[in-house]
């Protein structure tokens, strides 16, 4: 089935809400169908099972993150500024969609090893974007020439992810977007010249 069709997007958006409100394991396909306004059987025209819905949801939403960040950083000249925009945009997207924040920060942490591998595959585009920014920063002299790219990528992603997860766990009682600049300063300080 064509993933560009409206029902596919309806189902993905419905799955975000149902999984956020009920948890992945309690989210029944029939509830997702009801939320999407489609028949139960329609779900199986687009997805093999609930696991496929979760992976597809993450693929769509992470693709959206990368697309939005790439749009925002076009025309920005410095790697440090691009990194700030990445952090700001990530936090902004999650702040604007409470259900998406819950799903990406909590429900995607699955114990099933195969499912975790599939989720990690989807993350690759986001991690590649971090690599590009870090590599540019090293080349321009904004970041240390001996910066360990793999460690820097893990640190950037891990920091953004942990700050967002803590915000979700604290029931979003404070502004996530207000943390973007301090997080950016911390990351740049760790990557900058010593």
From TrEMBL:
Residue ranges constituting the HTH tetR-type domain according to the UniProt record: 5-65
Gene3D superfamilies: Homeodomain-like (1.10.10.60), Tetracycline Repressor, domain 2 (1.10.357.10)
Source taxon at top rank: Bacteria
Keywords: DNA-binding
DNA-binding region listed in the record: 28-47
Pfam families: TetR_C_4 (PF08359), TetR_N (PF00440)
Molecular-function GO term, any one: DNA-binding transcription factor activity
Protein name according to UniProt: TetR/AcrR family transcriptional regulator
């Amino acid at each position: 089935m064509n993933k560009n069709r409206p029902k596919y997007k309806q189902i993905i958006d419905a799955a975000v809400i149902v999984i956020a409100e009920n948890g992945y394991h309690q989210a029944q396909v029939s509830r997702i169908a009801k939320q999407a306004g489609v028949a139960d059987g329609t779900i199986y025209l687009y997805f093999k099972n609930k696991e496929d819905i979760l992976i597809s949801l993450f693929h769509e939403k992470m693709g959206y993150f990368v697309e939005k960040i790439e749009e925002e950083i076009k025309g920005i000249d410095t790697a440090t500024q691009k990194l700030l925009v990445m952090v700001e945009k990530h936090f902004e997207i999650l702040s604007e969609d409470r259900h998406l924040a819950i799903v990406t920060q909590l429900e995607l942490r699955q114990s099933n090893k195969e499912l975790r591998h599939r989720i990690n595959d989807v993350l690759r585009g986001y991690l590649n974007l971090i690599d590009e920014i870090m590599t540019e920063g090293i080349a321009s002299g904004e970041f240390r020439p001996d910066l360990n790219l793999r460690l820097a990528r893990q640190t950037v992603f891990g920091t953004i992810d942990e700050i967002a997860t803590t915000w979700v766990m604290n029931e979003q009682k404070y502004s996530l977007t207000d943390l973007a600049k301090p997080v950016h300063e911390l990351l740049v300080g760790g990557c900058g010249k010593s």
